[in-house]
TrEMBL record:
Stored Pfam families: URGCP
Coiled-coil boundaries: none
Record field: transmembrane: none
Domain Up-regulator of cell proliferation-like: from-to ranges: 1-91
Protein name: Up-regulator of cell proliferation-like domain-containing protein
């Protein structure tokens, strides 16, 4: 699957080259990139796909990359898992996990368990009544 991305190049300036204003270019298929995950916890009125589309789109030219319920044809029923994810896998392999939620129990093990390497970012809906 990575072969399709062989022509994508990432360009960055490591701290060691900051003085010389130099940079490094390398193909993303051979570079180490952190994985960032976006998941929903329980019933959630926020559409993570719609939010990601807004974050990733150019401000002058909006583009739907991910299918979401508010787009034409986006409200079709799910056939496979209805949003089921293996949260443990995301916590062990991701550098960061963004968790979208409407309601969150203060005793949720996601917040108290520190046996994972991922940084957890909670994205709550201000419209709903939630407490942490």
């Amino acid at each position: 699957m990575l072969w399709a991305m062989r022509d994508i190049v990432k360009k960055y300036r490591p701290p060691s080259l900051s003085e010389s204003k130099g940079f490094i270019e390398e193909r993303i298929v051979v570079s180490e990139l952190p994985m960032i995950s976006f998941v929903r916890l329980g019933e959630c009125s926020l559409s993570k796909s719609e939010i990601l589309n807004k974050l990733l789109s150019n401000s002058q030219q909006y583009h739907d990359t991910f299918v979401h319920r508010n787009m034409e044809g986006g409200d079709s029923p799910r056939r496979i898992s209805n949003g089921l994810v293996e949260m443990t896998w995301y916590l062990l392999t991701s550098a960061a996990v963004f968790v979208f939620f409407d309601a969150l129990d203060s005793e949720c093990e996601l917040l108290t368990n520190q046996n994972h390497k991922a940084q957890i970012f909670l994205v709550g809906n201000r419209q709903s009544n939630f407490s942490v």
